[in-house]
Amino acid sequence: NYLSGIKFTWETDHKALTQLNQKAQINKRCERWRLKILEYDFKVKYIPGLTNSMPDYLSRSPVDDAEEDPDEISILISKATQTDFDNIPNHLHVVTAVETRAMKLRNAKLPNTNNTEQLKSDSLNTSLKENRIIPFTNEQLKEAQQQDNYANKILNDIKKRKNYLIKNDLLMHNPKHPVPYVPQGDLRRTILHIYHDTAANGAHFGRNKTIHKIQQRYFWPSMCKDITNHIKSCIPCAQFNPRRQKTPGILKPIKPPEGVWQLVSMDFHGPITPTSQRGNKYIICLTDVLSKFVITKAVRDNTTHTAVRFLKEDVISKFGTPRCILTDNGTHFTSAMMDELCKQIGITHLYSTPYHPQTNGQVERYNSTMDAKIGALSNLRKTDWDDQLPFVTYNYNASIHSTTRQLPFEMMYGRLPILPFDHQDDNVTLSYDSTHINKLHQFLSKLNEQAKINIIRNQERYKQRYD
């Protein structure tokens, strides 16, 4: 596609098209076309019909039979009576194969819900097969660079290019943190698809998170603009991302804690419709207030027993005991069983203001993000949302947070996450560093301090805008 990645002018004698990108279209078909063309960088220019003779001729010129537009076929079917349908020309025989969503839902056979292990195995195999295939190798990238005019121009003058270097026969950008230059063409579109559309690597997160994720791995000059256009044209994102509106009142931010795992927020989310194939109806979520690290689990109910089990098996046994935990005043959190657990393990249990969910806004905000991403990744019937939950949670933790300007994964584990598509060295070096623990403590302390500074700075900005 020679229009991808370049700026061009679109001339048309249809003046209404000059306003196409100004707002969302009410007509669903027009809105799908609008989202599709947003991935390109163009300007619409109106010209009189007399000067637009060639496109006008081509639009009226008789052509051979071609593939039919499904939208046109659907309209034709809906408008035709049973008598008219018999007179449709033979070249529209594909009309009989058109199947509506309702027909698909009616004809589809549900898998055996009792065979939970088989469902889990099939789902995991599908996800792994989709997300483990490396789309291109370093050799293919090297060949593409050799055929790229921009890369050849830099290679011919590499000594004067301070921002470029050659490493392992690849043209790299940024000597401090070298990343390969990606030539124009299919490789760029593949990278955009991987780090935004796939469940394991992108999960349909927003512009800033996607830019940061790709910038850590690749470079090309129009990267930010291409990512922005790709996300603007993403139909699942447009369908499921919420449109936010400010609520009345003034904002009173919570002071950030001193360290990771000092204060965590927990809440149930649901009931979710429809119930998943495994019978799960709720998501229990726990968020660290400083690092923004999230732990989630799909569950069948929202009882105290489920909350206590989640804390013991999925939180404390894997990450240790948090100092304080903040919940709402639901009966599943105020019961005697929950109080007894907190006393036994030494957790200070804090409660949010009754009928004021903004007190526990950290976890409430993630619930909103989670809904949009799971909806974009799930199947048509939305019955596999619990299969997509681990991918959404992982990508949230592995993406830069807009408030802390840090990766929750890095603040929690002290290292950068490795995504399934990331290229790794074939050789592994084993060495012992006696000062590693001290270095790690210093590194994590620096991350925590910077995160607190960024949180306070953003809280002041949010409060100014909110009030």
TrEMBL record:
Any one biological process term the GO annotation gives: DNA integration
InterPro entries associated with the record: Integrase_cat-core, Integrase_H2C2, Retrovirus_Pol_polyprotein, RNaseH-like_sf, RNaseH_sf
Pfam families, per the entry: Integrase_H2C2, rve
Positions of the Integrase catalytic domain: 252-416
Stored SUPFAM superfamilies: Ribonuclease H-like
Lineage: superkingdom: Eukaryota
GO molecular function: nucleic acid binding
Protein name, per record: Integrase catalytic domain-containing protein
Species this chain originates from: Rotaria socialis
